[in-house]
Inverse folding.
């Protein structure tokens, strides 16, 4: 008995058919081939799980009553490692159909009874393909936005880095100070169990915490520490306010604010 039936790609949508009756797979293969779908047919539901694990499919047409396990158990296993696969459930036993609660819990996108004409199934497939294409478009847009945001953030960090180097060039006493503050902040953050985003915020904040010194005149910034007056101390202390002003519109500041709000 043939256990796998496969045809070449046509419209870019890969469909996996899972039914323990080879006759159903034969009929669906003719139907899907007519509409240009790339499909694979599998009679063993356990094999289907492994195929989804190791290959990329866009849509799965799945029989409900099968051996050795039913369709809902197949979906339950697949959802443990794949949340995106679009699944249509078929059954020739209306009275044995899974409850609506199960369909919702397993995120099964469509359900219909088996029929010789496959008209209802075609509508479900076409609807599924539209949803898949929309999700793929959204993913592409999100990736483009993510890449654009990364470039903007890097450009911002580069500009602030230039200011940081300018400050360290003005005040040799603090050269390397920001790097050390950043490193120690991250170590403390790891000890406290902070997540990656919070550690990134600490790292960047440590690097840039002293950039406010760019606004302090050299006559004050470079004055010998033993001769500090109260006025000089106030000027140096105000550098933290300048640092906040410089980065307050950045992602760094928003991340810091949101992390404080959520804690």
């Amino acid at each position: 008995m043939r256990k796998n039936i496969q045809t070449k790609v046509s419209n870019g949508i890969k469909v996996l058919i899972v039914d323990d009756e080879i006759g159903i797979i034969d009929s669906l293969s003719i139907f899907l081939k007519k509409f240009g779908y790339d499909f694979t047919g599998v009679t063993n539901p356990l094999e289907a799980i492994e195929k989804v694990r190791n290959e990329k499919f866009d849509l799965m047409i799945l029989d409900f009553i099968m051996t050795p396990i039913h369709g809902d158990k197949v979906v339950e296993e697949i959802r443990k490692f794949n949340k995106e696969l679009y699944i249509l459930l078929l059954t020739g036993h209306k009275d044995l159909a899974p409850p609506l609660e199960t369909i919702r819990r397993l995120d099964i996108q469509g359900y219909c009874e088996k029929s010789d004409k496959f008209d209802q199934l075609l509508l479900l497939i076409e609807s599924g393909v539209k949803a898949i294409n929309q999700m793929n478009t959204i993913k592409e847009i999100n990736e483009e936005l993510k890449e654009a945001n990364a470039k903007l953030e890097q450009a911002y960090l580069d500009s602030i880095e230039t200011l940081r180097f300018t400050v360290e060039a003005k005040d040799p006493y603090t050269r390397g100070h920001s790097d050390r503050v950043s490193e120690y902040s991250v170590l403390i953050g790891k000890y406290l169990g902070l997540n990656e985003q919070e550690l990134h915020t600490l790292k960047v904040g440590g690097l840039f915490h002293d950039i406010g010194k760019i606004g302090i005149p050299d006559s004050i910034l470079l004055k010998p520490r033993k001769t500090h007056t109260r006025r000089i101390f106030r000027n140096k202390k105000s550098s933290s306010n300048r640092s906040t002003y410089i980065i307050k519109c950045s992602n760094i500041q928003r991340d810091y604010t949101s992390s404080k709000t959520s804690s």
Summary: The CA atoms of residues 60 and 191 lie 45 Å apart.
